[in-house]
Amino acid sequence: MRSLASIVLGFESIVLALATIVMISVAGVDPSTALPLCLGLAVLAVVAAGLLRNRVGYALGWIVQVGAIGLGFVVPVMFVLGLAFGGFWVAAIVLGRRIDEAKAAQQAQSG
């Protein structure tokens, strides 16, 4: 589960960092708003990916997802990106648990 979740957070951090540029140059958002919001979430996503060995990392991951969706209130297209990454996050958690359970069952059978 951890590897899938870290992949989602890694890609999301890149998208959030690039969204900063788009928000400033295309959407006309003030840099004093866009920089802390987007880059803050991007850094939080990287920190969350690094902490996925603990429950804290997953809690931070959920906060990143809520924040990414919340960026839609600043630039509406971010609702779409936020919901997409939220879906990827949920899929990573659900599928990751299934993979972990299958690995545990296979190890129990062979060991």
Automatic annotation (TrEMBL):
The chain crosses the membrane at residues 7-28, 34-52, 59-92. The keyword Transmembrane helix applies. Keywords: Membrane, Transmembrane, Transmembrane helix. InterPro entries: DUF4233. This is Uncharacterized protein DUF4233.
